[in-house]
Design brief:
Layout lengths: L1 H27 L2 E5 L3 E3 L2 E3 L2 E7 L8 E6 L5 E5 L1 E4 L6 E8 L2 E8 L5 E4 L4 H10 L5 E7 L3
């Protein structure tokens, strides 16, 4: 019985350590991105330019991303959900787009197999209805984190 308790305690410690390491990884990583087109993040419309992107609540299962334009002229927050994929060497953003309108879809940090997905905003849903589109095209912007 004593051995079972030791194994159980060890298993719990490993799980807690893994979750903590993931949160710390997101907390330390901040991206600087150059987005070459205007885009929407949540309910905010942002102009093209250089942004820092960071997770403002790394310990949460519903991460909030903050986009801040380097010149201080724009800022946006958006809630995300975690998605699983494959780890990439480089960070990347993907956007859903309709014609020349782009909506943030996913953020992938370098070296992480878990990404962050954003829900469709009301503006995007209305645009889908207007255009009669159910499927969307994706644009991917590869990023060198600095």
């Amino acid at each position: 019985m004593k051995n079972i308790n030791i194994y159980l305690a060890t298993a719990i410690l490993i799980v807690v350590t893994g979750v903590s390491a993931q949160a710390q990884s997101r907390n330390r990583q901040q991206l600087t991105v150059d987005v070459p087109f205007a885009f929407s993040v949540g309910s905010s419309e942002l102009p093209a330019g250089e942004y820092t992107v960071r997770v403002v609540n790394p310990g949460s299962d519903r991460a909030v991303l903050q986009f801040s334009k380097l010149d201080g002229q724009a800022n946006a927050l958006v809630r995300t959900t975690e998605i699983t994929g494959w780890a990439n060497k480089k960070a990347k953003l993907s956007f859903r787009h309709y014609g020349d309108q782009y909506f943030l879809a996913q953020v992938w940090m370098a070296g992480e197999a878990e990404g962050l997905a954003t829900p469709s905003s009301n503006l995007e849903k209305n645009l889908q209805k207007q255009l009669g589109q159910k499927s969307v095209a994706f644009a991917v912007v590869a990023i060198n984190a600095r």
